[in-house]
Amino acid sequence: MSKFLATFSQTYLSKVRAKSFMISTLIIVLLIFIGANFDKIIGIFDSSEELTTIKVEGNEAVAAQFETVFNALETDISVSENDGELGEGEALLTIEETEPMTFTIEADQEIPGDQMSDIEMALGEVQRSATIQSLNLSPEEAQRLNATPDITYDIASAAGDPEEEEATASEGDGMPDINILNMVVFYVTVIVMFFIIINYASQIGTEVAMEKTSRVIEMIVSSVPPVTHLLAKITAMISVSLTQLAIFLIAIFAAIQLFDFSDLISEFGLEANDQTATMIVYSFIYLILGLILYLSISAMLGSFISRMEDLQQALLPVTMFSLIGFYIAIFNLWGSADNLLVRISSYFPLFTPFVMPLRAMNEETGQMPLLIGVAILLVSIALAIWLAASVYRNSVLSTSNGIFKNLKRVRKE
Amino acid sequence: MTLEIRNLSKSFNGQTAVDHIDLTVPAGSMYGFLGGNGAGKTTTFRMILGLLQPSEGTITYNGNKIDYSVTNDIGYLPEERGLHPKLKVEEQIRYLGQLKGMSKKEVDTKLDEWLERFGVPENRSKRIEKLSKGNQQKIQLIASIIHDPKLIILDEPFSGLDPVNVEILKTAVKDLNRQGATIIFSTHRMEHVEELCESLCILNKGKQVISGNIDEIKSDFGQKEIIIEGDHDVEFLRDMPGVIDMKQIRKKSILKIENESYAEPIYNEIIKLGYFKRFQVNEPSINDIFISKVGHEL
């Protein structure tokens, strides 16, 4: 155990103290703080200021109608008569009775987009009732003119599941009902997992390969069993990645404590639903299991090679499979999140950690597939570690290259 | 603390690297493995350390199989040198020391002593990649002996070093042996074995050619060498009984005789000729023994 700890602490400390670790962590923490203040940063660059008052000049009846319509929109802007002065946060609306009516808005500053669209909407309404009046339409005719089209979606589900069809139909808008907070959890999980895998796969591969190519491994395995050594290395690298993850989470937590998020939350509608807790728990489990699986495989691939130049080539499968898994997850978010590709790929061990969080988002999925996914990953991890350990034990002293040669060696020994 | 190797063989893909080796390394002795490239020295060492499984035969240390429960008592300097290039000397030694069950503090004290002894205390906090090859080799030797092992296996410890460093290393190895460590080392330099070892094993293409105590091997070998130096013509000695071979280099004649009993009649013959500067009976060199057994030089 003490030898395990010796390798573990040596690997862990040297990685955590490395400049690359510190710099990459710092950059992400900075990005988190920038993200937390995104609305304020936009505010700095946005020269437009909110309007507080619109002063109206022109036909009184039209002005009164504008006021009624505009107030119904429940904005923060008040409407008043023109008193000849235009102060800060004030705009002047001039109405000219042409056909159609001409409206001129005057202001000393830029008007924010959302306020502009409120004003335009109200003016459109004013124009429309003026037109209705001028055409002498009866109230029924006016009502008919204002009627919205009645659209019904009848879309066949890809999976052909009758229950799902019903669910889609009941939603009525043709898009899957995605909770924004769950989506954020999903995106964060998948993106963090992908980047940690890409980053740490190459790091653990380098660690193992460098020890092997520098031949120091012979001194090491004469002191500690290769399997213990490899496991200590994998554990250390996973701990380094989790340390980095923990720093990010602390940064997020600190950002929540330090800054006012209410605007950001209300703007994006980040609200938990029934599925959020399940989603967070499973995403975390899949994140951890995914890291362990991919890092174990990377350690094995690292032990295949005898020259550092071959490392990237050896790690290609890790990059490839994690990229495919990542894309399957990301690209199916906005489609039908439970289609056949998602279902099948969620049971393929290398894709499971990416795709299962997507399925966890959908309450239709139920607990069973998610638990099966966890079981598949646990078995795969055990298998990957066993294979990595056997390959490692037999390949540390060999200088032959190539995955197949080394696999053959495992079979023979 | 005796190391016993019985009937040890190892083959890779049908090729025999080590072929039925049988030897005993007595506790506290200095044992030399002599052989050219591909003789099977490194493979034998790796089997002793348990890094390779023998195809046949057994290895015991104090009557027990060598496994990871006894590795703290063993120090190993591999033939292929290598350390973590990015680590500092102290970090590397601390790590390897801890793998041998030492505490950080113990490693630090010992490391200072050894660096001082090898005359490189300034290298302590340098990165290994910044050191010269010879200095890296010193650091690796320190790594393999810092935990005061009872059994030390050094694979080609002197190769690639300049004569000054070879001497420093030899002295260190002798001291370790004097302090009670059993030392096994391999080399292809006969003179190192002759100088340092009490016992040896000569390997040739995986086969054990000779093994045992050097003095006994030499006396059992029987053949002796006589060196005669003088102005007289001694060509007639070639036909004397017991003379196997005779070489003449200017005024010096070197005779190989079957055993020491033939030396006296030769001496009696040449003194009849008058004054000779030198008449010397020598033990055979390891090189002679090797050539006579294998048929070629190492």
Automatic annotation (TrEMBL), chain A:
Keyword presence, Zinc: no
Keywords: Membrane, Transmembrane, Transmembrane helix
InterPro entries: ABC2_TM
One Gene Ontology molecular-function label: ABC-type transporter activity
Top-level taxon: Bacteria
Every ABC-2 type transporter transmembrane domain range: 19-389
Membrane topology: Multi-pass membrane protein
Signal peptide feature range: none
Compartments, record wording: Membrane
Transmembrane spans: 21-38, 180-202, 236-259, 279-302, 314-334, 370-392
GO-annotated cellular components: membrane
The protein's name: ABC transporter permease
Organism this protein belongs to: Salinicoccus cyprini
UniProtKB/TrEMBL annotation, chain B:
Classification via SMART domains: AAA
Protein's recorded name: ABC transporter ATP-binding protein
A Pfam family that the UniProt record links to this protein: DrrA1-3_C
Provenance organism: Salinicoccus cyprini
Keywords from the UniProt entry: ATP-binding, Nucleotide-binding, Transport
Family designation: Belongs to the ABC transporter superfamily.
Domain ABC transporter intervals: 3-230
GO MF terms held by the record: ATP binding; ATP hydrolysis activity
Annotated InterPro entries: AAA+_ATPase, ABC_transporter-like_ATP-bd, ABC_transporter-like_CS, ABC_transporter_ATP-binding, DrrA1/2-like_C, P-loop_NTPase
